[in-house]
Amino acid sequence: MRTNWAEILKKIFPEKTKIKIGLFNIPFHAMFVHFPAALYPVAIFFLFLALLSDKDSFHNSYFYLMIIATFFTPISHFTGIHEWKKKYRGVRTHIFISKIRYGRILILVGGLCTTWDWFYPGILDNTGVLNVVFIILNISILPLVGYLGHLGGKLVYGLPH
Known about the structure:
Order of helices and strands: HEEHHHHH
Number of domains: 1
Mean pLDDT: 86
Distance between the termini: 44 Å
Largest sheet: 2 strands, antiparallel
Low-confidence stretches: none
Structural class: mainly alpha
Radius of gyration: 19 Å
Shape: elongated
């Protein structure tokens, strides 16, 4: 019996999450959105481990996870905009405007945290206002990621009745 890969892919990836590329339909936004959504919270977990244990390995893990999450956030954002324009024809509704707005804020805050740690890696060694601002800025990523995921879930699974 011969396997028809196109049929298998159709069953795995529902029609509403696909971008057609060549012979395959690949859900790019669905793939890329989960990298920053998962890596930011894990990075912040390592940030707190670094604060509690004062070990450089935890701080290094935080930093490298932030680099990866910061890299994938704009990709996720722009694939989402592309899918919105293609699938929903760019119709402006509250949910899409919120996703675009908070996505941009996440790009800014994630990039700021990563850049700050890049240029000032000793930020966790100090105590003071800048240290507190840095930690609060990192923590502010969590509600952003959560809210964006909540809005995405409404789009994928439907609005509550």
